[in-house]
Fold each of these.
Amino acid sequence: MDATALAANFENKLAKNENIEPKDWMPDNYRKHLIRQISQHAHSEVVGMLPEGNWITRAPSLRRKMVLLAKVQDEGGHGLYLYSAAETLGISREELLHQLLSGKAKYSSIFNYPTLSWADMGAIGWLVDGAAIMNQVMLQRTSYGPYARAMVRICKEESFHQRQGYEIMSVLAAGSPEQKAMAQDALNRFWWPTLMMFGPSDANSANSENAIKWKIKRESNDQLRQRFVNQTIPQAELIGLTIPDAQLKWNEAKQGYDFGEPDWEEFNQVIHGNGPCNKERLGARLKAHDDGKWVREAAAAYASKRKLVAA
Ligand code: 3HC
């Protein structure tokens, strides 16, 4: 097929909502866009293990500890599926990790905030995983096959994460005045950074136009943010917590809430390396990479020995 026929075939598949698969022809910019988004997503899962990992040794009961351990392990697994999906686009795992560790690649802004109390485990599960699901349900229908398939399992697990977080918050909110205050404080600190997870407003979202055109994203940053707010307010009300937004108001005409504007200057600082924990997070990943060097070397030596034996 010549170049025009290949491009027409690609457009035709998109129009029919058929998946694009690794061996199919695709425009270079589609490939680059996916590598950027899928790898940012993978890095977010792996860096996202750190703020919660911080509380595994201090979980208040054995049950809480087992659930948190399982959740943090799930995030590591999500990172692995997503790195594999990115590799099908022709980039190596080494290069992807190099991009993260050298500070070139972004990961979700939310993981650059500290986890100061046990209630933060509740707030992260409820809000952060809740926002992640809101964004990721649509990604099950994203146009690139390996990414769409990875998202099916990820969404199921994220749904458990959201519920465990909401359960922690419900128990704290119904507990002693000190426990309720701890839950409210976690909500106060995580609310605005969670809204920022959806990315800049549509007017300032550089990548959205292509993402929508290529059916990588099916809904815009603002649409998803609005849906998240609409879904979360009644959940907060049910457990007696207050969303820290004086502008929050039901809007009958749009059948949704009006809400305040996140601090986009803070967002820009965080995604450019200047959030409260950026250096700590990257430092932890660098240390893990260095500590794992002997394992990679041993695995490579074992693989070449087996090759010799087989030959
Ligand atoms: N954190 C860090 N960077 C962000 C960001 C955020 N919350 N939101 C946007 N950005 C960056 C974009 O990457 C882009 O920078 P780049 O061009 O250098 O890559 C720039 O800000 C402009 O944003 P756009 O709206 O143009 O970018 P996108 O169209 O890519 O939208 C996104 C951003 C909504 C995050 C999109 O990339 C996306 O849907 N990604 C897949 C989902 C994902 O990455 N989720 C991470 C959440 S955490 C998670 O899943 C872990 C779970 O366990 C909680």
Amino acid sequence: MELLKQKILREGKVLPGNVLKVDSFLNHQIDPELMQCIGEEFAGRFADLGVTKILTLESSGIAPSIMTGLKLGVPVVFSRKRKSLTLIDHLYSAKVYSYTKNETSEISASKDYITRDDVVLIIDDFLANGQAVQGLLNIVEQAGASLAGVGIVIEKGFQDGGRLIRERGIHMESLAAIASLTDGKVTFKEEQ
Ligand code: 5GP
């Protein structure tokens, strides 16, 4: 998605450890117009699959998911990373290991909002090693729901997550796929 790539080139900052900082439009401050375009793009790429629900992870997955849900006309469920006072039982939960933080956390979502009748589209902001998406896939499996696919805003294509998910035969779309962050420079993969 050209608009997103230009935004990454203009505003993204490469941090040590191959981390891309995009706090100015996705991870802290949010650009609503760009999110709207992202929502339209995901909605187009996952059209006609009978999606009934979007599943994401708080907090940075919420903005692109809301815009996609608006366009597809379906609700958005965000998994929580921390236990909530009002979300105590009747939960699906999955462990997610974060390489960047070197810690395992438990994500959870209420059984009320994802059921075996749902066709779920998973959306997240970044894909690196794929642990966050694997946790969300695990929740979809626990629910006995069908999977429409996985939509990622920024895929770090030099890490393993994308390959592992595609190898499972899952329909995955990323809007900007990064080939490298070497020497502080963002290089994108060629579009296929
Ligand atoms: P994974 O579970 O695929 O290894 O990592 C995905 C999660 O880690 C994303 O939800 C995102 O929060 C975070 N993440 C991984 N790499 C980056 C990065 O380069 N920049 C930012 N901003 N977040 C990242």
